[in-house]
Design a protein that fits this description.
The chain is of the alpha/beta class and 388 residues long. The chain has 14 helices and 13 strands. Helix content is 43%, strand content 16%. The strands form 4 sheets. Strands 1-2-9-6-5-3-4 form a 7-stranded mixed β-sheet, with helices on both faces. A two-stranded antiparallel ribbon has the order 7-8. Strands 10-11 form a two-stranded antiparallel ribbon. Bound molecules: nicotinamide-adenine-dinucleotide and zinc ion.
Length: 388
């Protein structure tokens, strides 16, 4: 499937918020523009960008009142850097972690917003990983029929994926992300320095999503990831900035061309049909999202090889890189039947047909529209699920 032309890295020297970078005391961040029906927004990537948030917001005229929503853990670690960008004394704090990504937690955010007297001119700043970004984004999409949102992603997963693209939402016990909305942020600030405090397992979970970008759109990114794992695990700012920028650029190009997922955007779901099913059957407790996606990619590759669309050597290259990233939680004990049943709730089912993304090499994909339960079952067996 052809992707739109990939853009080159653009330092933030023109347009929106330019004046913040007129002093040469810090390097200009990489700026990626994302087109959305509601208006384009910038993603600013680079060490030190978080410290510029108060100034960015003062100059952006997004709204006079700004309230941060975060989790206690993230706020304790990085709240100080954001506090000066808010006008409210206290942030709204809710628990993160996949099992709290539900309508109950969104209800807590609504209540706190109402109690704080938040109105339509209030800007909500979501500070945290993908769970906070998705659930706070959903609260922002629905509170007073929608208020402005700024995303400050603090996990690798959120910086490379969830904070960009405007999909927000929460899980339902029957399926992942089944309740949601499209609500693009007005600004995304991805500062790789905040990733220094990220636990190794969370960091790896984000790297699997970078593997995904390599497989669907960029062999150079795939190779670079493979060759720079040590520096990345050392949280080297330059290495991280590069990986985050390349990933965001791929996502920005795709969602700018297809915001509402009528076609092209589906490639971003590579590995997610099985990945989401694994998360649902384990009640969102066993896998980090990225880990489930890692298994999902292996299953998609096995299925692609079985169907003759994926070259076995591409499957082997991905499997080697996934293995190099570290161990994944066990899956042998899960039930093939339950996993396949869970894929039936996948949002990629259009008119009863599952649109399954398969790789045709590293950096390219195709969509299979006739994937059967039998195909899925054999793929699951191939990746090590043993229980019928
Ligand atoms: N909307 C989208 O397009 C999209 C895309 C990809 C993923 N997602 C969603 O993102 C979610 C997963 O996000 P995640 O992996 O970021 O998980 P998460 O939000 O649960 O964060 C993982 C853990 O890291 C901690 N944490 C966050 N930032 C930290 C930091 N800087 N230092 C130390 N600890 C920190 C959090 O407290 C949490 O315990 C899933 O629900 C997934 O569906 C959404
Ligand atoms: Zn994902």
């Amino acid at each position: 499937m052809p992707l739109p032309m990939m853009r080159k890295s653009v330092p933030a020297t023109t347009g929106f918020m330019q004046s913040c970078y007129s002093t040469p005391s810090y390097m200009a961040p990489t700026r990626i523009e994302v087109a959305a029906a509601s208006g384009a927004y910038p993603v600013l990537i680079g060490p030190g960008t978080l410290a510029t948030l108060p100034r960015l917001l003062d100059q952006s005229l997004l709204g006079p009142r700004r309230i941060a929503v975060s989790s206690p853990v993230v706020w304790e670690l990085h709240g100080n850097a954001v506090r000066r960008a808010t006008t409210e004394r206290e942030p709204i704090l809710v628990p993160d972690g996949e099992r709290f990504k539900n309508t109950m937690t969104v209800g807590r955010v609504y209540e706190a917003l109402i109690r704080a007297g938040a109105d339509r001119s209030t800007v909500i700043i979501a500070v945290g990983g993908g769970v906070i970004g998705d659930l706070v984004g959903f609260a922002a999409a629905t509170y007073l029929r929608g208020v402005r949102l700024v995303q400050v992603p603090t996990t690798l997963m959120a910086q490379v994926d969830s904070a960009v693209g405007g999909k927000v939402g929460v899980n339902h016990p029957l399926g992942k992300n089944l309740i949601g909305a499209f609500h693009p942020p007005r600004l995304v600030i991805a500062d790789p320095a905040v990733l220094e405090t990220l636990p190794r397992r969370e960091f790896r979970a984000g790297l699997y999503e970078v593997v995904k970008y390599g497989v669907i759109a960029s062999e150079p990114l795939f190779d670079r990831l493979d060759s720079s794992l040590t520096t990345l695990f050392d949280r080297d700012h330059d290495a991280l900035s590069h990986v985050v920028s390349e990933s965001c650029r791929i996502k920005a190009d795709i969602v700018s061309a297809d915001e509402r997922e009528s076609g092209l955007r589906r490639v971003l779901n590579f590995g997610h049909t099985v990945g989401h099913a694994l998360e649902a059957v384990t009640r969102y407790r066993r896998f980090r999202h990225g880990e489930a996606v890692a298994y999902g990619m292996l299953a998609a590759l096995a299925l692609g090889v079985a169907r003759g669309v994926t070259p076995p050597e591409s499957r082997d290259r991905v499997a080697r890189l996934v293995a190099k990233l570290g161990p994944l939680p066990p899956i042998a004990d899960l039930s093939i039947k339950e996993i396949v049943a869970a894929t039936a709730h996948d949002k990629k089912i259009v008119d009863g047909t599952l649109h399954f993304v398969a790789a045709t090499g590293i950096g390219q994909t195709t969509t299979l529209k006739d994937v059967t339960a039998k195909d899925l079952k054999s793929a699951l067996k191939t990746i090590g699920v043993t229980r019928p």
